[in-house]
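Usage example:
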Amino acid sequence: MTDAPFHRLPVPLSERNWGGFAAAAVAATAGVASWSFVVGGFSAYYVGAREGTATMIAGALIGQLLVTLSQIPPVTKYGIETLGTTKPQLGARGAIISLIVQYAILIGWNIVLVIFLGRACAAALVSLGMIGEASAGAAATAVSVGAAAIVWLLLQRGSDSLKAVSAAVAVLILVIGAWMYWLLFQTYSLADIVAAAPIGPNEGGRLTNYTTGLELLMVSTLGWWAYMGGMFRMVNSAGKGAVPSMVSLGFGWSAIGLIALYSGLAAGEADPTVWMAAVAGPVAGVFVLIFVAMANLGSALVGAHCAALGFGELSPATRNLPWNAKVAAAIVPMVLVMILIPGAFYDNIGAFMAFIGILVAPIIGIQIVDWFVLRRLDTLHVPSLYWHDRRSRYWYVGGFNPAGDWLGRGLSVETHDGRAVACEIVGLPFLDPEKKIPRGLMHAAE
Amino acid sequence: MKQVNQPASVQDAQRDDDFEAQIAALDGAPTGAPLQSKDCVFLIATGIILPVALLLWGWS
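Running the assembly step on the lines above writes:
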C-alpha cells in the first residue's frame, strides 16, 4: 500500500489518477473564492464595465499562461511539487528562496480568505441580531480560527480530501455564481452597469487605468504558481493539466471576479455578502455566506495542502516529519496572524498583491527559459531534487546557484571539422557578443 | 515486531536507507506525457489570441 496522498517523493505515474475533470474541479475550488471579489472590487476603481471585462479576463489568461508554462510541464511529467521544480534553477539549498515565496503566497492568501469569511459571518450575526456590534471583532476572529481548524481536520486525508471536497464545492460555486449573475442583472440594468464610471481612477488618463486593470489581474494570477504542484502532480499528462489550468484558474476566477466589478460599479459595493443581502433579503445573504464559506474553505484547503507539501520538501529534517507536523507548519502561522494582526494584514491586500508579482514573476520567467530554451525539462535529474548534499547535480556552490557562476565549469566546443573539444571556462564573458566567437576558454587537457 | 525492539537510531538509519533506495529508483522512472501540438494550440489560443482580441475590444 502506498501513501500517495502524503508523498514525500514524486507521485509515480501509475498512481497519478486525477483526470481532467478532477483537476478542473480542484482548480476551480482553489481559484474561485473571496479573492475573486477582492480583485474585482479593486478593478472597479480604475476601469468601467466594458474595459474591466476585457482587462480582467485578458490579464488572468495571460498571467495563467505564464504560470502554466512554468509549472504544468515539469509537474505533470515528473509528479513533483512546485518547490522541487525550482531546485535546478536555484540550487538544492537555494530553493529555500522559493519556499519563502511559496509560503508567503499560500499563507498570505489563506489569511485573506479566512479573515474575509470571519468578517462576513460576524456581519451576518450582527444583522440577524444574534450578537452586538461590540462583539463583532471577537466573533470574526473566532470564526477565522474555527475555519483554520476545519482545514486542519480536512487535511488529515492529504490530497484525497482535495479530490473529495472539490467536486461538490465546484458544482456549488457554479450554481451560486450563476445565481449571483442573474440577481445582479435583475437588480441593475445592463445599460446602467455599462454606463457606470470607475470609482477612483488614476490621473494618468484612460491608457494608464486600462493598463493598471490589466496588471492587477496579471499580477494576482501569478500567485497561482505557488499552488500548481500541489494541484497538478496527481495528473499524468501535460495536456490534462493545461486545460483545467487555463479554464479554472485563468478564466474561472476572473469570471467570478467580474461580479464584484459590476456590483462595485453599479452599487458601489463589491462584497456580495453586503449587496446581495441588501437587494434580495437576509435569506439570500445566508446563501451567499454559505457560498463564501465553501469557496474560501476549499481554497484554504488547497493552499494549506500545497504549503505542507512544500515545507516537507525543504530538507531531510522536514521531509521525515509526520504529515500532521507539516500541516501544522502551514496552519499555525495563519492562526497567529488572524489572532494578533488581522486588521493590519487585511487592510494592505494591495501591497500583498504587488509583493506577489515582484517575487514570483522573475522565478516564472527563469523557469520558462530553463524548460523551453535551455531544454532542461528533458534532462531533469529527479534524484538530485531529493539529495541535499554534493551528490545532487543541483548542488552548485554550497547548495546555491549563484548568478554568474561560470568560472571553472566545463563545456564542450565543436570545431569546424566536427570534433568536440572539452574546455574549461577561465575568463568571462566566454562568448564575444559582437564577433560571436568563444573567448576565455582553456583546453581541458592543458 | 523485530523492528520495534531496535534502537531508534537503527530504525532511523534503516528508514534513511529505504528512502535512499527509493530516490535512486527515481532515475529512469516512467514520466507523464509532455505537451502535444493540440495542447500548444490551445495555450496559444487562450493565452495569447483571446486576450489580445479582448483587449482590442475593450479599448475600442
